[in-house]
Design goal:
It contains three helices and no strands. By secondary structure, it is mainly α. Helix 2 packs across helix 3. It starts with a helix and ends in an 18-residue tail after the last helix. The mean pLDDT is about 85.
Length: about 80
């Protein structure tokens, strides 16, 4: 998980995603992000990435946003 977080935080993001929420959803999403210690944007992106990996995996596809992370020659 640590390596994937480093990779995710270093990615450049340029495309906004506008979604409509109920007040209750927004309040609970904000609270969940705060509990996780990350911004709402990062929390939503994390949840969407996990959902996409699962949904695509169910039909035998791999998420294209998953890229290999270079490792040091000693495996770290």
């Amino acid at each position: 998980m640590y390596i994937s977080l480093i990779y995710v935080f270093s990615m450049k993001r340029e495309i906004p995603l506008l979604i409509r929420l109920t007040e209750d959803e927004k309040r609970d999403f904000d609270a969940s992000a705060e509990i996780s210690g990350i911004t709402l944007s990062a929390w939503v992106r994390q949840q969407l990435r996990l959902a996409a990996i699962q949904e695509l995996g169910r039909v035998g596809r791999k998420a294209t946003f998953l890229k290999p992370v270079p490792m040091n020659s000693d495996g770290n």
